[in-house]
Amino acid sequence: MTITITAFERSPDGGRGLARDTRVRWALEEVGQPYQVRLVSFRAMKEPAHLALHPFGQIPTYEDGDLALFETGSIVLHIAERYAGLLPDDANARARAITWMFAALNTVEPPILELANAALLEADKPWHDERMPLVEDRVRDRLKQLSARLGGADWLDGAFSAADLLMVSVLLRLKSSGLLDAFPNLLAYLARGEARPAYRRAFAAQLAINAVKPTGD
């Protein structure tokens, strides 16, 4: 059976590749697995049929035969473990790559999401102007640590892996913020990820959905 993933019917990012289905699309493109996409509206995401797949009413979900998964990190890890191309064969290198996958989602992404939420959802709060520099500093601290560890390497640990796929996806949220400008190696790292043919295909597929004008508009 063909793998089926879910994605926003109309993505909040307008197709800029920030919605998390792009990460799953990218992983599937990297390993050369065909897939189909079922688009869901915000209303449908909260209805029983979708909640049976994702108890928190979000996207993406992943279905392959009798297997249904939610949570982007879990889905990407499953793809990487099932198909060749996203994890090293060496056991220790594989373990390190998986560690970096968790680091991308659990250590680097949270302050970046906090920054996005502060900018989008808290701009009208009286304490917004005082809070923003603190949030930005937390992001800079993580970027300094990541930059120091990456150094002059192309990828996090040897060859490109699922760890880089997730880390690049996380850093993409900062692309327009200016915060990456102080870290040339991270900018170059991000550019290498975006230049991968599999990423370009995933990005184009997500953008194409959002370029279609909905019926009735």
Number of strands: 4
| Count of the separate structural domains | 2
Tally of DSSP helical segments:
8
pLDDT < 50 stretches: none
Give the strand content.
Answer: 5-15%
Using the alpha-carbon principal axes, give the shape. Answer: globular
Order of neighbouring strands in the sheet with most strands: 2-1-3-4
Named CATH topology of the largest domain: Glutathione S-transferase Yfyf (Class Pi), Chain A, domain 2
Distance between the termini: 35 Å
Helix-strand string: EHEHEEHHHHHH
**CA-based gyration radius:** 18 Å
* CATH class annotation of the largest domain: Mainly Alpha
Named at the architecture level, the CATH assignment of the largest domain is Up-down Bundle
Arithmetic mean of pLDDT:
92
The class by helix and strand makeup works out as alpha+beta
Q: Strand count, sense and closure of the main sheet?
A: 4 strands, mixed
Q: Fraction of residues in helices?
A: 40-55%
